[in-house]
Design a protein that fits this description.
Layout (H helix, E strand, L loop, with lengths): L13 H9 L12 H15 L9 H15 L1 H8 L4 E10 L13 H4 L2 E8 L5 E9 L4 H14 L12 E2 L6
Antiparallel strand pairs: 1-3, 1-4, 2-3
């Protein structure tokens, strides 16, 4: 099914695809009641000076946007299924940032970055825990790579929350 997915129509409305291509980061706010008008007024003023923009979704767009969150979470697994000849494994880490961190994305050294096909980051607004999926290139020892990455996190004083499923691999280690 993954290999024929391209024959079906895209589920995102055109306006959302345009926004996806225009901006790297997206924030979905689901609101109701008195705060909606206040939020719209604040965002309108804010984006007069700041980089970025916003729009209010139609009911259909809102429904599809929130459904799309689940597609993002499964993107690494889908990529692995479709590109099994290029992917060894997926290393999934939940990374807790400090409250005052301003650098949210790690800068991996070339010897680690070169072992990855893609890096996917996603999280929740006002939550400093990022879900980071690393798609590992075929032939790379994903367990050894995980140890190197954990060492980098320790040096950066970042942590892996004990309540999360940190360091999960998507397939069993070969015997």
């Amino acid at each position: 099914m993954q290999k024929i997915g391209h024959v079906f129509p895209a589920h995102l409305p055109e306006r959302m695809k345009t926004w996806r291509d225009k901006y790297e980061h997206h924030l979905l706010l689901k609101m109701a009641g008195d705060g909606v008008e206040e939020a719209q007024a604040w965002l309108t003023e804010y984006f007069k000076e700041a980089e970025g923009d916003f729009f209010v979704c139609t009911a259909e767009e809102g429904s599809k946007a929130f459904l799309h969150r689940f597609a993002a979470a499964g993107a690494a697994i889908r990529y692995q299924a479709v590109h099994a000849d290029e992917v060894e494994d997926i290393l999934a880490l939940d990374i807790a940032l400090r409250r005052n961190d301003t650098e949210w994305f790690e800068h991996l050294p070339a010897e680690i970055d070169n072992q990855l096909v893609y890096k996917l980051y996603y999280g929740h607004f006002m939550c400093h825990v990022f879900h980071q999926d690393y798609i590992v290139k075929k032939g790379v020892d994903a367990h050894a790579l995980k140890e190197k990455m954990l060492e980098l996190l320790k040096r950066a004083a970042r942590s892996i929350p004990p309540s999360t499923t940190s360091g999960i691999f998507t397939k069993r280690r070969r015997a």
